Structure formats: C-alpha cells, structure tokens
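Hey, can you fold this one?
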Amino acid sequence: MYQENKIWIGKAGEEKIYIYPKMANRHGMIAGATGTGKTVTLKVLAESFSDCGVPVFLADVKGDLAGMCKPGAESESLQKRIDAMELVKEGYGFHAYPTTFWDVYGEKGMPLRATISEMGPLLLSRIMELNDTQTDILTIIFKIADDEGLLLLDTKDLRSMLQYVSEHAKEYGAEYGNLSKQSLGAIMRAVVALEAEGGDQFFGEPALNLADWMCTDCNGKGAIQILDCQKLINNPTMYATFMLWMMSELFETLPESGDREKPKMVFFFDEAHLLFDTASKTLLTKIEQVVKLIRSKGVGIYFITQNPKDIPDGVLGQLGNKIQHALHAYTPAEQKGVKAAAQSFRENPEFDTYETLTQLGIGEALISVLDEEGIPTIVKRCQILPPQSQMGALDDGTRDEQIRSSLLYTKYAQMLDRESAYEILEKKFSEEEESERKAAEEAAAEKQRQKEETAAEKQRLKEEAAAEKQRQREEEAARKAKEKADEAREKQVKRAVKNAASSAAGTVGREFGNTIGKSLGGSFGKKIGGNVGASLGRGILSTLFKM
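Sure. Predicted structure:
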C-alpha cells in the first residue's frame, strides 16, 4: 500500500515498515525458500509502486501474477490476515491495477520483440551458447554489418549475413582477421537451433520501445507490464539473457536523472539466479556495471531468488532494500548459506537473526530497508501485507480481453518486415548468381566458339589435305598420261621412222637389186634383183632399229 508518501510493505508488531520511494532505486531483493510467500511480497511491492505512480515490470514465471488486472476477492485466510493486521481502518480494499500482458511467443500476451542488433553479439552469444572464439567471430559479423550499413533485425538477417561472410571469408579475413569456415558453420547451426526454439518470433520488429512503459493510467497509477514467462523459462539461458537485455536497454536509453523523489520504473527479476548461472566473467562484469549505474537513471531493480548466495557479492552489495523469507538449514551447506544471509543484515538485539530465519512462517520475513538518509535499518521480523488484487492465474478469456483492449495492441500485434540485411543480401546473391550465370554462359559460348573454330580449322585442313592429295593424284595421272602419250608418240615416231626408213631401204635395195638384176640379164633378173634388194635393205634397216 502507498501511505504517507511511503510504500508500506509490512508490520513488525505495531510498527509499520516502509520503503522510501526516493530510496527505491537503490535496488532490492526478495529471497526465501519455495512456498514461503515471495510471490505475495512481490505483488504487494508491485501494487504499492503502481499506487505511487511508478511503472512496474514483472516477469511472471508461474502464471500467478496475471490476476493483478482484477480486484482481489475475500477468502477466509485472507480475512483473518486483514483483521489481524487491522488493515480495514488503514484504507485497505480490493483493487485492480492497470496491467498489460506480454509474451515473447505471442501466446499469452502481446508479442515482445527485440532486434538482433539491439541484443548485440555478447548477449546473443550467451543465448546461443557460443564459445569464446565463436563469440569473437560473431562480434566481427556485427562489425561488418555496421560497416556496410546492413541492418540485423531478425534471425534471417543474421543467417544471410553469416552465409554472405562465409562465401567471402578470404576477402573479409584480410581486413577483419581470420574467419574460419568451421566457426561460421557452428554459429549458423546455433542460429537455426535458436529459430527452432522460437527465436524467429522474438527477434524482429516492431521492437519494444521502453518509453511505452513509462506511463500511468487516468488515475495516476503506474502501468504494470507483465511478461508471461511460463514457456520462456523452459529455456533458462534465453530467459535470463532477455531480462539482462531489458535492464541494459533501460540503462542505455534513459537519461541521467540524479536523485528523484521516486523511481522512473521498478524492474522485478524473478528466478534471478538464472541470470548468473554459467555467465562468463565478461558478462558478470557487465551485469554488475548495469546494476551499479542504472540507479542514476532512476530505475530500481529487485531480484527474486531462493537464497541470497545465488547473487554474486558484487551485485548483492548494491541491494539496499532486503526482504528475506524463511530459509531451510537441513544440511551443512544450507546452514552455511543461512548464516551468510543472517550476517548480511544489520543485527537486531531483540532476536537471533540466524535462528529467526529458520523459524519464519508463511507471509513472514526479515526486512531491512534504507532510511531517508540511505542507511540500512536494523532488521525487523515482519508480517507482509496481503495484496489488493486477485491472487492466482487469470482465465484465457479475460486475458485475451485485456490484451486486445491495450492501447499498444495495434502497435505491437503484427510483425513488420522492412528491408534489412536479408533483403539486401538476397539481392546481392541474385546479382552474383546472375553474374555467375552470365559468366558461365559467356564461358560456354566462348568454349563453343573455340570448339567450332577448331572444328572448322580441322575441316579446312582436312579439305586442304584432300585437295592437295587430289591435286597430287591429278598431277600423277597427268604425268602418267603425258608419259604414256610421250611413249606413244615416241613409238609412233619410231614406227614412222622405221616405216620411212624401211621404205627408203626398200627403194635403195630395189635400186641396188635392179642394178644387179640388170647385170644378170633381162627384165626378169631386174625384177628378182629388185625384190631381193628391197627385202635385204628392209632387213638390214630393221636390224639397225632393233639395235
């Protein structure tokens, strides 16, 4: 309850225990074993901050915070508590609170999204459980995207960027360092696994604008933002990293505000131990830095966990407002934890803090807050006030009605997909593919041209060889024909000469025979002598030609 400009959280006997709003941004803690009343305490604080006009964020891990949008209802146990603490005369009553529901998966609330760029390589590496080398390469991927003006909004942008860098690893390696294909492949597989777990729904636009949470309703009550984490908590790393991202966003986006009368916003982080489990040294340093410095931005962070030892000392030392419910001490390790928790309080001489911690009942807690001067008060054993809104879960019909009636519904209900790395790189991939296709076609055409030229050259040479061979054949035939003609002519000449010589020899022989025949006497002798002479002459000439 908000009373006398102070946040009333419980009673120690007749004494009222308050948190001073101007000290509320010094952070706080609600701790205690399961079933000791942490959720009720969380609701009481959230309602009181809302009554104070301070916006509140709650992570609803079990689904039992959603009832804050409805007034509480009477019950026997609740009435006993109201009567015992005499709350009616203090103005206690049942009230509903201005509540907006969110869900990373968009199932039990409006979709709550962030962009890949906003998440950053360090937190994204934790979600994807990358090793140090892979984290360094992811950081380089982000740097290349920034240098080339490529927006990383959703997981498909990141996948496209990884693919593009992988295909141009040698080119980028010269400027940004070695980018091994194995590490790029491991990151790609982690992105695919992240999408399978719903990361493709969480990363995108419209991204959450935290300024939309910094508001009050028409009655001046601070708006309460409830993130349903019943499904998200099944992935503890993603849940914790998302919470850290929100704190980081608040730290980075809000201006310095100095000392304020009340916080700008109060952030409740349930299952806080998940934030620190398996966190690297670098990440723990970042968490401590955010917790230390964010209070100057007017933001109070309250961690809810089972045991204070779940929170690192560097963070625990920053928590000024402590509400400690009962702790169990059955084992030596648990006894050591209870002792450490007891020693973290400013001692009250009226009771033994260690013993009291193990004896607290449900709804009881040890409380130490910062006074108006910022000094921790002596620890008090207190009864926590009951909440004024409905306890427990909310039916689906009422939840859906609340979601759709929100003024932010039209802004965040539908995912946007503007041009970013994916679209730009897809265009580049298409251009490169087209260029490669054209180059391949040109190479194929050139190869075909060369093949055709080679075939044509072979055909030309073949035809020339055939022509040369034909020419040679024709020359040889002509030569042989000439030789044959020459031989025929020569024979003809010889025959003519022979005939002429034979005729001449016959004539000469006949003349010679006639002469001899004359001498032998009479015309008969002349005739015989002429024939003999002609035959003899031809015979001699034939013999000469044969020789």
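Residues 421-520 form the longest helix (100 residues). Let me know if you want another pass with a different chain boundary.
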